[in-house]
Amino acid sequence: MATFYLSPSKSLTIPLQTDLSSSTPKPLVGFRCNLSLPSKTPAVTAEPPPVYSTVKTFAPATVANLGPGFDFLGCAVDGLGDFVSLSVDSLVHPGEISISDISGNNVGKLSKNPLWNCAGIAAIEVMKMLGIRNVGLSLSLEKGLPLGSGLGSSAASAAAAAVAVNEIFGNKLGIEELVLAGLKSEEKVSGYHADNVAPAIMGGFVLIRSYQPLDLIQLKFPNDKQLFFVLVTPEFEAPTKKMRAALPAEIGMPHHVWNCSQAGALVASVLQGDLMGLGKALSSDKIVEPRRAPLIPGMEGVKKAAMEAGAFGCTISGAGPTAVAVTDNEDRGKEIGELMVQAFAKEGKLKAYATVKQLDRVGARLVSSAR
Amino acid sequence: MATFYLSPSKSLTIPLQTDLSSSTPKPLVGFRCNLSLPSKTPAVTAEPPPVYSTVKTFAPATVANLGPGFDFLGCAVDGLGDFVSLSVDSLVHPGEISISDISGNNVGKLSKNPLWNCAGIAAIEVMKMLGIRNVGLSLSLEKGLPLGSGLGSSAASAAAAAVAVNEIFGNKLGIEELVLAGLKSEEKVSGYHADNVAPAIMGGFVLIRSYQPLDLIQLKFPNDKQLFFVLVTPEFEAPTKKMRAALPAEIGMPHHVWNCSQAGALVASVLQGDLMGLGKALSSDKIVEPRRAPLIPGMEGVKKAAMEAGAFGCTISGAGPTAVAVTDNEDRGKEIGELMVQAFAKEGKLKAYATVKQLDRVGARLVSSAR
């Protein structure tokens, strides 16, 4: 096991490892951070040189929970997500990273301090894993996902950043390490859950089996089957605290058995490419959705509208407020989306927009690179 | 929809449909029953003639629960089970069934009244579904499974009987109807659960998705993979009431999410033929096994012994007292079994016997027939 030393500058001596894992981090003074403190699990023994001067990566939106898959299942959605551009930057102190730009709608809330930014935190973790102390990096984040919509916005940023750093240094790390880096980020911004960041990195459906140790199961949806997600996002800020508080602390045995069996059915439907079964499972949650749906104005009517329009199933995406329905046909998906938008307007008095996207089977990826 | 009338004799006018579904049936006077009352779901519109004069069927033992699959998952075990011989018998009143013989170890408790015998109840249900009123049948039950061992003894009898009646009349009914017939039997003797009787009829792994309507998912374990069950049954009567009473009424959210994810992982492992994953899932239950294992003397030590001997996983079969471990090799299975038997002796002061059997992929089947 290699040991990493403080970078020559010793400009920041804050124990970052502790800060990053602490839920109440100490205030920091700059927008850059020292990455050269010891890593718990250094994945490479010698610092790799950058193989590109610049890379651009993409990471997809994700739908977590999926009804009875609450807190352990998620999947990636193609054509919707965040981009990260990353460059070797001699103006950035070696071993450090700087966030130069954040673009996209409504991104004013996002910090450019890498220690407080999901992309920054994940990037820092990957730099730590790689033991980077002689190269400075500059990161630019292009948000394609709205914040707080229930589509894994923070996970997409983290995934794109983790993959970007890994790619610029020659793709030395494995999936698991990238997910762990993403988890560090999620832990800070939305809780220690991998059900968005794992599918954002890996693509497809991912089951989080355990965290200690991290154990992920990729669930392959058959290549010859098509799966479309109808994502309908209302203009409504889901009250995260309320959403969490709405969860029951205790669950009666009949509901536990029911949801467990539906979770099993969901996994079987994914692996068997059974779209009707998948939709049915998606719609079947008796524990979380019944508590959360009433907190999103119109959600119950939206689900009803989706089912009446022929969706195979419908539920809340993540903690909402986006509603997700599934179908096997893009045009049908658009019709379903329109009716769901109408239902949000009628039943929830909310303006909403719909988009129809396919399952993403790839996950976070390199989009372009230059040497 | 066909309507069935009372048989010409009108010898028994007890409303059987009601009696069979009632939890407190009225006492009956004979060992035969009238099958010609209306059936809720007549599956065939004309009474089929028998195509054989006699048939013999087999139905396998089953392992239900499988750790986190509590109350909705089960699988069949080859080479261990019950036989039913069924004959057209002119001495039996048309439309009725008689149990002529029950053989096997320790079967004294079993009633020969078809209304109170698992095989009889299932057979009656199938006769009802087929609308049999002109043929009398005689049934002989050969118990290969010990009662109350947690290996689906009642389900095996019911499955073998249901399939026998269906076969003797030309195999007119589908799997679902046979399972429903088996369920009628299970309802009466051990509760309305299909997690034994469905795999006993269908073979392999079966997920019970719902009862209203009955929705079953067959989970195909890859043909090119071997899966052995080490079944170790102690000489101990598991206290059924205590076993049920030991279940928690309420489950905390973290345990619910954990068990749900393990159930999903179990399903994925079966479909992907991932034996290590399957074993891990089998061993992972945090809700039921921790409550029930202490009620079976030595069980915790037996599980430990199985794992130390190289089993992929181990848990309680059904409600016990049989312990089930999984492995991919018969000889290894025998070694594991010996160590589990030793552990039952040492830790539970119980005599136990071990058997190693493969996954049954076929389910209840015709063994022989004569015209």
TrEMBL record, chains A, B:
Keyword annotations from UniProtKB, A to Z: Amino-acid biosynthesis, ATP-binding, Kinase, Nucleotide-binding, Threonine biosynthesis, Transferase
GHMP kinase C-terminal domain ranges (all copies): 268-338
Entry EC number(s): 2.7.1.39
Transmembrane segments: none
Catalyzed chemical reaction(s): L-homoserine + ATP = O-phospho-L-homoserine + ADP + H(+)
Top-level taxon of the source organism: Eukaryota
Domain GHMP kinase N-terminal: 124-204
Pathway membership: Amino-acid biosynthesis; L-threonine biosynthesis; L-threonine from L-aspartate: step 4/5
Alphabetized GO MF terms: ATP binding; homoserine kinase activity
GO biological process entries: threonine biosynthetic process
Keyword Amino-acid biosynthesis among UniProt keywords: yes
Pfam families assigned to the protein according to its UniProt record, in alphabetical order: GHMP_kinases_C, GHMP_kinases_N
Keyword hit for Membrane: no
Family of the protein in this entry: Belongs to the GHMP kinase family. Homoserine kinase subfamily.
The protein's name in its UniProt record: Homoserine kinase
Organism: Quillaja saponaria
